[in-house]
Amino acid sequence: SKAVAGHTNGTVYVLGHANGDLLAAARAAQTAGAQVRATFGLINTVAFSAPASKISQIAARPEFAKLDLDDVDQLLSIDTKTVAVPYGDQTKRGTHDIGADQAWAGGVTGSTVTIGIADSGIDSSHGDLGPKITNFRDCTQVAPNIFPGLLSDTAPGVPSLAGENIGNCRDTNGYDDNGHGSHVSGIAAGSAAQNPALPGVAPAAKLAGAKVCLAAGSCLNSGVMEGMIYLATPAKFGGAGADVINMSLGGGRFVAAWIFGASQETNSDTETMLANALAETYNVVFAIAAGNSGPTLQSVGSPGVGSQVLSVGASVTDFDLDATTAQTLHGVNGMVRPEAAVANGGPGRALASFSSRGPTGDRIIKPDITAPGAYYVAAESSTGAEVRAVDALSGNHYAADTKYAVLSGTSMATPAAAGAAALVIDGYRKANSGATPAYFVTKAALANTAVPDAFEGPVTGLISGIKSHYGGMKPADLFPLRNDTAAGATSNYVGVTGEGAGRINIPAAIAAATSGVTMYTPLSRNADGSLAKNARQPSWAMDSIVPGSSKSQYFVVQGGPNMTGVASLTFAAGATKEAEGVLSADPRWFKIGKATTTPGGKSGVVATLTVPAGTAPGMYTAAIAGTADLGNGVVQHLRLPVSFFVPLSAPSIEGPVWASAETDYSIVGAENPVGDITTDWVMFPMTIPAGATNVTLSIYDKADAAHMDVFVFDANGEEIDSTVSSNIDADVPADAAYAPTTASSPNEVTIL
User: Fold this and answer.
1) Model confidence over 458-491: pLDDT tens digits?
2) Staple partner for 352: which of 93, 314, 366, 381, CB 3.0–4.6 Å?
3) Which of 506, 602, 592 is nearest to 556 (CA)?
4) Which residue, among 138, 119, 250, has the nearest Cα to 186 in the 3D structure?
């Protein structure tokens, strides 16, 4: 009665999991005498109420795969009354897709949380942003950091992070001469004061800003790192005391032949190391953009590759999948991927084609999750010339609106995820007298409860958007999809490499952190005391495993402090719907135990993977699915993605290499606006036998049509050698000198 207005005794509240068609399940429940209260397309579920006498009849209907008790009390235990919120309908926005509006209705709006924004600034004159800014510093005057290492952390009582102090930020009023940071801030925590229909994900959260990028959008590492430290440092030590820090920026892999070699982004990158260290030192959730270099594999940028950060990919708003351009909120492109809207019985999901894919150069699963990042309508800075110009040219529904702009990118997805993390923290604090969850518990709650199985959706940027909006060109022609069976691919899905655990589900994440269960790998450290790359991960990533051998992983199973009793968990492995060029592991290769945990307690479970002899080399993924019986008929579902590599063991291997265009390895290509490698990596681990004097690697296209190169990297992602650095063709701009790499004329490199 405290949770549902008009409740009558004898009424049972149920979540019915549809067996395919969601609407058919809703009609079946209604026909059987139930009152349909809501449908949740994200999880193909119908919420209904019915007299207790009707439940067994409904459970027997073939339209339902399973019935669970509606666990709305899990969320409402955070605040025991429904709150009227001054926001408009969110159906056409990504905020609705991730359940932010459900959290607001339960009183969880981020009011106890501060979100730090390390970006181009925040416009303090914007009505949605200015009143929320508690701290702001300009960090763009810091000298470039030309030495490897970390910044000194001089807060009293906190161990130094070691390294050189390269400058300081200065206090100033909030400003933004680019516009990117204000847009990001509006997505994370905009108050909707200027437009009730456009709130941020955590609309009551406070904002702290660190301007780390100049008007043109360039961001020196040194300034970024100073901004990170300022935002993360507690207020009592002179910092902003942010609980969540948003970083919608990063650098990608690249190579300029004859100048410098290729690099793979890893946890040894300086910014990444700092983010990892600050997360642990100050218990801060870092939400960092995965990058916009998709759909090629291994394209996640730094510091988004950080093991302790929440790396974010960009999803497409559900409404936009099969709505016309005129029907969309933004007015850029509609009908993004209609077949995704009805996938698996519908409604389905899609990842933006530009969203960077994993794994990282040190072979961990990134991105961790996805959040809405395509055609996002949010605050526009009055002084942000670059964003204002982009918005005016695009011809979208907000082109003439000086308060709001439409942008796409993992830059937009990341503040949506930062806002989601803020809601999880806010919900936890309101349920636990102000206590704060560990950063890795917040991260695990978001990842464990995420919703997988996204298609790919072509999403345009500025130039391509103009071509499609004014020139009539199709986004799918401008951005060929990697995963499209209609075009000959083996799968429509982006898989673990694209979506990590899946798209966040805020109400489920709040429930998991407070009154449910979270799972993650245990604490482990490197020899230097830093966190190991596989520590505290809501996933299981392995380097390589030789066929015929096994590997095991222990997972911490943590009970939320508001659980009502002992939780019992069972687990099963499942095959993933993977991207083109990635293999799905057989679920029979896994053996997983059972676990129990108590309110606020920790236990564990061991998973073992055995790869059969003769398994083909390549990258494999899977997922561990957990079912937690929380008592009183309440069930929680968890998911942990898995990835591993089977190394080269035969003299040769064949495999697909996807590419939408030739790579320009020249210095011209390295300095182009994308600044990234546009073709795929296909990565195979290799162990060199003891006593070997040289190893020759060669590559060619079986069709004798494409130019191909081979790179050799060490375990830290640094190039040892490649066919590019020794091939003058690669130094000629725009691929002018490239020739097909054939069986009779392969590209070869010899090491050792």
Assistant:
1) 988 766 677 777 778 888 877 778 888 888 888 8
2) 314
3) 602
4) 119
DSSP string, 659-687: BSS----SHHHHTSSS-S--BPP------
Determine which helix (DSSP H) or strand (DSSP E) holds 103, and give its type and residue range. Answer: helix 100-105
CB atoms within 10 A of CB 210: 33
176, 182 contact by CB (below 8 A): yes
Question: What is the distance between the alpha carbons of residues 678 and 253, in angstroms, rounded to a whole number?
Answer: 10
Task: Round to whole Å and give the CA distance between 230 and 209.
Answer: 9
Q: For residues 115 and 241, what is the distance between their CA atoms, to the nearest angstrom?
A: 9
Alpha-carbon gap, residue 339 to 337, rounded angstroms:
6
508 close to 99: Cβ distance less than 8 angstroms: yes
| pLDDT: which is higher, 744 or 113 | 113
Question: Cα(74)–Cα(125) distance, rounded to whole angstroms?
Answer: 39
Give CA–CA dist 682/386, Å, rounded. 36
Task: Kindly report each contact of residues 159-168 with a partner whose C-beta sits within 8 Å and lies 24 or more positions away, as own/partner.
Answer: 159/281, 161/274, 161/277, 161/278, 161/281, 166/142, 166/222, 166/225, 166/226, 167/139, 167/141, 167/142, 167/143, 167/222, 167/223, 167/226, 168/142, 168/226
Give yes or no for a contact between 180 and 384, defined as CB atoms under 8 angstroms apart: yes
Question: Which tokens belong to 40?
Answer: 């949740």
- Which residues, including other chains, have CB under 8 Å from residue 395's CB and lie 6 or more apart? 331, 466, 469, 470
pLDDT at residue 260, as a whole number: 58
**At 663, phi and psi to the nearest 5?**
-90, 135
Residue type at 388?
A: R
CA–CA dist 660, 102 (Å, integer): 40
382 class by beta-carbon count within 10 Å (0-12 exposed, 13-18 middle, 19+ buried): middle
What distance in Å separates the CA atoms of residue 490 and residue 500, rounded to the nearest whole number? 19
What stretches of 63-150 adopt beta strand conformation (E)?
A: 64-69, 114-119, 133-138
| Bridge partners, 556 (sequence order) | 520, 604
Asked if residue 680 has pLDDT above 80, the reply is: no
CA distances to 136, 295, 728 from 481, in Å: 41, 8, 31
Amino acid at 672: N
Contact 564/632 with Cβ under 8 angstroms? yes
Q: Is the pLDDT of residue 41 over 60?
A: no
Pairing mode, strands 695-699 and 747-751 = antiparallel
